[in-house]
Amino acid sequence: MDVVFLSRLQFAAAAYFHFLFVPLTLGLSLLVAIMETKFVRSGDEDYLRMAKFWGKLFVINFVVGVVTGLTLEFQFGTNWSRYSAYVGDIFGSLLAIEATVAFFLESTFLGLWIFGWKKLSAKAHAATIWVVALASSVSAYWILSANAWMQHPVGYEIRNGRAELTDFWAVISQPFAVHTFIHTITAAYLLGGFFVLAVSSYHLLKKNETRLFTKSFKLAATWSLIMAVIVVVHGHYNGSEVARTQPTKLAAMEAHWETQTKAPIYAVVIPGTSDRENNLFEFLPLPGFLSMLAYHDFQAEVKGLKEWPASERPPVFLSFVSFRTMVALGVLMLLMAVLAFWWRNKLDQYPWYLKFQLYALPLPWIAIQLGWTLTEVGRQPWIVYGMMKTSDAASPIATSQVATTLVGFVLLYSLLALIDIFLITKFARRGPEPAPAE
User: Fold this and answer.
1) CB atoms < 10 A from the CB of 31, how many?
2) CA 55, CA 41: separation in Å to the nearest integer?
3) Residues 277, 257: contact at Cβ < 8 Å?
């Protein structure tokens, strides 16, 4: 294994671990803000207890997750110094704004929310969690804009042997960044909703605080249905943007080898590899569906992988499996959200569904991780699509150094993940603080 492969593996490990925490932070922050706002508007103490209970789980996840994000940015200097030297003028500015504006705004107001329960008025205190929630989403936009630029570089010129920023607005407003943000943020909001549904299901099955957790379930059911619809519907438009800007990724995620009009999607496919140049098995073609997904036209031409040399094709099997599994999980979660909303007023009649909702908690995490696998693997062999190859971006360091730090990162992040799971499970099972005596 060479230094490029190990550096990719290390960055992937750090990113996967970090994105165990980020979606729950994004998803829970808005739900907690909604709960506390409902308390302020109605005076219903159940919503206050809900905000404190779910807020505690949110804070645990936030605190543990912050650590995993720090090393990601450091790796651009340690493992990817050639990349940073070449595009740092653009990429670095986006990360700097995220850290100095959005993250510090988020963390500052989170401190006010944690310690301000008895020091701020109810309205002012609710306002602090709204700032936290909005700052979290703004923070995500800067990070996703930086990633979108790697997927579709715009607003730059090559000067003095490096990419220099010429149009900041083009970088942060390009359609790829907007679509990436919408798809990622709504997936995170959906995960937050499923987290509340799962924990609420656990307590409803135990018949613990049934009134409070029924309210939590109803709120999360409505939220999850809205987010699931957006995720599934927007996936079509996201696919169209990928087709426009990254045709090789589109071809890889559908294992599409031959350029053709009225390009089909096969219901069942065993994909081939970049050197085999065909699929092992195809069954039940749906004529024109790939053309429609890509260009909103059943007759449109879709380029196949054979249009590019094997050295410029993404890994087909991993891209295909990631995409198909992500889509299948997205449809399944939409159906689950429909059932949760439909049965929200008669949950006691469907204990089997509550059990299913509880054990289905990992599904949104799996879907999100698969989405990022497709995003990053489908871009290969480019670190900046069509501009700089990953093999040219790694730091000139010893393989042993990367291997050592890789092992260290995996051990450290595994420990942090176990701590997070332990603490969240412990406090989720414990439930909210007892209601004050009448």
Assistant:
1) 24
2) 18
3) yes
Retrieve residue 121's tokens: 């008025």
Per-residue pLDDT tens digits for 75-115: 777 878 888 888 888 888 887 777 777 777 888 888 888 88
Ranges assigned E (strand) in 61-218: 156-159, 162-165
The region, left, alpha or beta by phi > 0 then psi within -120 to 50, assigned to residue 155 is left
Whether the Cβ atoms of residue 197 and residue 220 lie closer than 8 Å to each other? yes
239-246: which pairs have CB atoms within 8 A and are 24 or more residues apart?
239/293, 239/294, 240/293, 240/294, 240/295, 240/296, 241/175, 241/176, 241/179, 243/293, 243/294, 243/295, 243/302, 245/151, 245/152, 245/176, 245/385, 246/151, 246/152, 246/378, 246/379, 246/385
* DSSP letter assigned to residue 2: -
> Cα–Cα distance between 438 and 162 in angstroms, integer?
69
Which residue is listed with tokens 């006010």? 112
Whole-angstrom Cα distance, residue 239 to residue 255?
14
Please tell me the pTM assigned to this model: 0.89
**Structural tokens at position 156:** 């730059």
